[in-house]
Amino acid sequence: MTAPKTPSIQDVFLKHLRDNKLDVTMFLVNGIKLQGQISRFDNFTVMLVRGTGTQVVFKHAISAIHPAEPVQLIDPASFG
């Protein structure tokens, strides 16, 4: 019997950004700043869309993702 797999905080964060179509600023480790909306992601990449352009970014190249508005992933009421 195996325990159910819980999603990683990274997956929960990226899914929230994707599903809510939030604008993000993505900073890469080489200093480049990208802006757009996350349309897809997998274990290794994130697809960023802005206007008619699409960029695929390797996760290991990302240093930070800054959403345009605050993100709350946990229900504060659950911490009684």
From TrEMBL:
Cross-referenced InterPro entries: Hfq (IPR005001), LSM_dom_sf (IPR010920), Sm (IPR047575)
One GO biological-process annotation of the entry reads: regulation of DNA-templated transcription
Q: Could you tell me which residue ranges the Sm domain spans? A: 11-71
Q: What's any one GO cellular component for it?
A: cytosol
Indicate yes or no for the key word RNA-binding: yes
Pfam assignment, any one? Hfq
How is the subunit organization of this protein annotated in UniProt? Homohexamer.
Please give the family membership noted in the entry.
Belongs to the Hfq family.
Biological role: RNA chaperone that binds small regulatory RNA (sRNAs) and mRNAs to facilitate mRNA translational regulation in response to envelope stress, environmental stress and changes in metabolite concentrations. Also binds with high specificity to tRNAs.
The protein's name: RNA-binding protein Hfq
